Known about the structure:
It is a single chain. This protein is mainly alpha-helical. The chain has a domain of 41 residues. Helix content is 46%, strand content 7%. The protein has four helices and two strands, in the order ββαααα. The protein has a two-stranded antiparallel sheet.
Amino acid sequence: xxxxxxxxxxxxxxxxxxxxxxxxxxxxxxxxxxxxxxxxxxxxxxxxxxxxxxxxxxxxxxxxxxxxxxxxxxxxxxxxxxxxxxxxxxxxxxxxxxxxxxxxxxxxxxx
Length: 111
């Protein structure tokens, strides 16, 4: 059984299959063709040409390495640096929570 929202009271009413998937007051979909607008490409837009995109798609498809390590040693350095920073931060948070839980970290009183 298919339902749609009724037009008079706004209640849900049973309906036909074709009417259930069309919004109220709208007919079937039709394609609207507008004018083609050509925008001159800047130097940065030229870097993302379809040939470049195709090249990177094929590169990522062939390799077994994770995507964030495919461009070489610079990506590896950035990745390992961020992972190290994350571990140091996690260690500091764990240390702070331990200090608060054991009561060794006290608020400094205002004088």
